Amino acid sequence: MTSMTTGIAVGDTFASPFHPIGDLLGVFAAHRSVLEQVGATGIVAAGLLTTPVALGAVRTELQWSRIVAVTDLDAVGAETVITRVANRDSEIEVDRHVRLLDEAGNTREEGVETWIAPRTAAAGDGPGADFCTVRWGEALRESLSKDGTFADSLANWDGTIGLRCIDGPSHAREVHLRIYRGRIVDVTRRTPNGATFTFITTAERWVELASAERSDFMRRAIAGEFSSSGDGYEYLRLTKPLGTIIEHARIIAKESHA
User: Could you tell me the end-to-end alpha-carbon distance of the chain, in angstroms, rounded to an integer?
Assistant: First the structure.
């Protein structure tokens, strides 16, 4: 997907050209040593390479991590993707994942920004893109109820599948699908006995899974791109129905963008 100019929607992306760090931080020449000491060089560079999510938007939170900190010797580019959009009474709250890449394509530093934008910025916040929330789970249940292969694959199973979306180092969304004999009988944030197992991945990977032209969940699962908690045996045994769940996540995401 490409960045949209008419509104804000989950999946909107942006990529900047590459620039030498030294050139980017030229206006901060007097403070360069301080930026390096506090580890803020990458944060400042990312801010200079990107723009606010909408006109009049204000960044209210930043969770940032460094894989290999950037230095004055690096040339870097920034890539962003919107991972959450929530309409409030008088404003819009937006999460955006930011990656700072070197010229070899390696992610050097990354973070999650939270922005507050005025209601004048049109926003797409349909349930199909509100990953791992109850309303998303309800949309998923409705879609899966029409799929006989899903019911058949879990016809003899009684348990709960948890789906977790990690928004950053300290933020996550999670929904539990209570399943009995092939039917999702309840959708809730938590079940009394917890999930049998929980499928876990980051918000940006949820966006990738939901917006992919074709389903590549199985390939990525085999490659170890996702994690889980709880009963590992059941997680592995139910990889196929889990793949069906992800396929329907793609369906409801596309319906939200229609």
Answer: 14
| CATH number for the domain formed by residue range(s) 127-257 | 3.30.1050.10
Lowest mean pLDDT among 2-16, 133-147, 187-201, 211-225: 2-16
Q: What is the pTM of this model?
A: 0.88
Cα–Cα distances in Å, from 130 out to 55, 203, 204, 218, 223? Answer: 23, 10, 12, 22, 26
Q: What are phi and psi of 169, to 5 degrees?
A: -55, -30
Paired tokens of 33: 């040593």
> In Å, what is the CA distance from 206 to each residue of 4, 33, 63, 84, 179?
19, 38, 18, 11, 22
Q: For residues 186 and 250, what is the distance between their CA atoms, to the nearest angstrom?
A: 21
Task: Please tell me whether residue 56 adopts helix, strand or coil conformation.
Answer: coil
Tokens of 143: 């879609």
Q: Please give the average per-residue pLDDT across 183-194, as a whole number.
A: 93
- The residue extents of the domains of the chain are 8-124, 127-257
Topology (CATH) of 8-124:
Thiol Ester Dehydrase; Chain A (3.10.129)
Structure tokens at 253: 């995401």
Domains 8-124 and 127-257 share a fold: no
Which of 28, 107, 25 has the alpha carbon at shortest distance from 64?
A: 107
Element spanning 205, H or E: helix 203-211
